[in-house]
TrEMBL record:
<dbReference type="Pfam" id="PF04255">
    <property type="entry name" value="DUF433"/>
</dbReference>
<dbReference type="InterPro" id="IPR009057">
    <property type="entry name" value="Homeodomain-like_sf"/>
</dbReference>
<dbReference type="InterPro" id="IPR007367">
    <property type="entry name" value="DUF433"/>
</dbReference>
<protein>
    <submittedName>
        <fullName>DUF433 domain-containing protein</fullName>
    </submittedName>
</protein>
<dbReference type="InterPro" id="IPR036388">
    <property type="entry name" value="WH-like_DNA-bd_sf"/>
</dbReference>
Length: 196
């Protein structure tokens, strides 16, 4: 499994990015740090993803020290391919449901990301010239999938969902896209004064 960025990991774990970042600061995990563009970037592997998906349960059941022991045992178990149960000290913890959830979300991320063309300057919805982040901005502003399909009739529902997922996992740096399409702005505008 390739290592994921913080935003990708948040998508896989199923948490909003801002909350996910706070959890990562509190949890006893050690994401890999890599240099990219002169900055240290966190990268999350399978052990971190499973741990973070189980974190709410772990906080209730384990002390901070036991959480650290569990994390180390989880890393070791996954490296050896022993994935269903983690044994640490005198304790056993079933991670099967968390592992299944993470694996399903990783496949979903791969499938949706494959619908995005990354060959140019901006990520485009494959087979179109429509920027993924543009569509995600519309959805973030409250547009429904149906609203987007009305203004972009060439898009299918799955492409719109792929754009949103891609944008969530790969936030756009810099200037944001408009939160409304030109067609929607025209429909909302009161042009009756032009009739005079």
């Amino acid at each position: 499994m390739e290592h994921l960025t913080t935003a990708q990991a948040a998508f896989v774990v199923g948490a909003p990015l801002d909350i996910f970042k706070k959890v990562v600061e509190r949890a006893p995990i050690k994401p890999q740090l890599v240099k990219r563009g002169g900055r240290n970037i966190r990268q999350f592997g399978q052990a971190e993803l499973v741990f973070l998906h189980a974190y709410d349960e772990l906080k209730q059941a384990l002390t901070p020290k036991s959480q650290s022991e569990f994390y180390e045992a989880l890393r070791s178990s996954l490296k050896r391919g022993l994935a269903k149960e983690v044994v640490f000290g005198k304790q056993r913890y079933d991670i099967g449901q968390h592992l299944v959830f993470v694996e399903r979300k990783l496949k979903e991320l791969d499938k949706l990301t494959a619908q995005i063309d990354l060959s140019g300057k901006e990520p485009l919805i494959r087979g179109t010239q429509i920027e993924a982040h543009r569509i995600a901005a519309l959805l973030d502003a409250g547009a429904t999938v149906e609203d987007v399909m009305r203004d972009y009739p060439s898009l299918k529902e799955q492409q719109i969902v792929a754009a949103r997922v891609y944008a969530e996992a790969h936030p756009k740096a810099g200037r944001p896209y408009p939160k409304q399409t030109a067609k929607a702005a025209m429909r909302a505008a009161d042009l009756s004064a032009l009739d005079d």
